[in-house]
Design brief:
alpha+beta, Outer Surface Protein A, domain 3, about 180 residues, elongated, 3-stranded antiparallel beta sheet, 2 domains
């Protein structure tokens, strides 16, 4: 049995769950999500707990078992507390600001880069620490938007200038050796 797949998903207060066969609909204070899973996996909801079981021990069902449980758990956590990714801007003159709902980046180009949020996504910018927070209830979309922001100016290895994740370590290279 999958160690992750056999763990039950406990539903916190304020979250409504509807399970209709392989279709799961979860609604909470941050938003609502719906997803259809493989019919080979059994999903049951009783007494505030979602359990995921597989019908046989085939390789494909073993692979889907833990993944299905993890996706359902991410849906529950997302609509209850939400997810965030923190990015950090390094570089002289590099900065970011929120204009209405859009994120505006000034990162060394001749023009500002404007990023419009997808539905369910919001941005927060702390100018003192030069941090950008990407907030949302869908973990996949939060991660994709953060990756798109990082792609605007990825960190370079010589001076470390660019946009990086907060916990990311940049591999630094030595510059030119010069004359001896």
């Amino acid at each position: 049995m999958s160690r992750i797949g056999r763990m039950p998903v406990v539903i916190p207060n304020g979250v409504d769950v509807e399970v209709d066969g392989s279709n799961v609909h979860i609604k909470g204070p941050k938003g609502e999500m719906e997803r259809t899973f493989s019919p080979e996996i059994e999903i049951s909801y009783q007494d505030g707990v979602i359990e995921v079981k597989r019908k046989s021990d085939q390789r494909t069902q073993r692979a889907l078992h833990g993944m299905t449980r993890a996706l359902i758990n991410n849906m529950v956590v997302g609509v209850h507390t939400g997810f965030e990714k923190i990015l950090e801007i390094n570089g002289v003159g590099y900065r970011a600001e929120v204009n209405e709902k859009n994120l505006v980046l000034y990162v060394g180009y001749s023009h500002p880069v404007i990023i419009e949020p997808k539905t369910g996504i919001s941005f927060e910018v702390e100018p003192k620490t030069r941090q950008i927070k990407v907030l949302g209830y869908n973990k996949e979309i939060v991660g994709q938007v953060a990756a798109d922001i990082r792609k605007v100016r990825p960190p370079e290895p010589y001076k470390g200038k660019g946009i990086k994740y907060l916990s990311e370590q940049i591999r630094r290279k030595a510059g030119k050796a010069g004359k001896v």
